[in-house]
Amino acid sequence: MNKIKIKQFSLYFAWLVSIVATLGSLYFSEIRGFIPCELCWYQRIVMYPLSLILGIATFKNDWSVKKYVLPIAIIGWPISLFHYLEQKIPGFAEIKPCANGAPCSAEYINWLSFITIPFLAFIAFSLIIIFMLLIKSETKSK
């Protein structure tokens, strides 16, 4: 019974993280008026479907969804890491300059001198990956 609870809560928390990340990105762009850069759009392209996929899987208790969610989250993880490095390490900004809209090195928020929007996305992708790995490890131990 304990294993089932870990599976259920891992799936539920992964969904919750994806919902918060999706709503947070919409808040920053639609309410605060921050223009998303090119890398922000890539992160959104990866995160938004996770909200839907994880939501359906949570309601259906479909733990096999990890086969689909884990690769998607793993794609978003390095994008958000690279985006964060572009903001925080001056040398990264010249590697790939963003031509459309806002520059990727722009920091709309900078809480505690290190928390930026790409950092929040990085944490969200990391948590989703961790929760999916918890489901995977629990499934293998059956």
TrEMBL record:
Gene Ontology CC terms, in alphabetical order: plasma membrane
Membrane topology according to the record: Multi-pass membrane protein
Major site of localization recorded for this protein: membrane
Enumerate the SUPFAM superfamilies for this protein.
Answer: DsbB-like (SSF158442)
Q: Does the keyword Transcription apply?
A: no
Listed A to Z, the keywords are: Cell membrane, Chaperone, Disulfide bond, Electron transport, Membrane, Oxidoreductase, Redox-active center, Transmembrane, Transmembrane helix, Transport
In terms of superkingdom, the source organism counts as: Bacteria
Q: Which GO terms describe its molecular function?
A: protein-disulfide reductase activity
User: What Gene3D superfamilies does its record include?
Assistant: DsbB-like
Write down the InterPro entries for this protein, in alphabetical order: DiS_bond_form_DsbB/BdbC, Disulphide_bond_form_BdbC, DsbB-like_sf
- Pfam families, alphabetized: DsbB
**Its family?**
Belongs to the DsbB family. BdbC subfamily.
**Entries under HAMAP family matching the protein:** BdbC (MF_00287)
Q: Which PANTHER family match?
A: DISULFIDE FORMATION PROTEIN-RELATED (PTHR43469), SPBETA PROPHAGE-DERIVED DISULFIDE BOND FORMATION PROTEIN B (PTHR43469:SF1)
**Know the name of this protein?**
Probable disulfide formation protein
- Protein's gene: bdbC
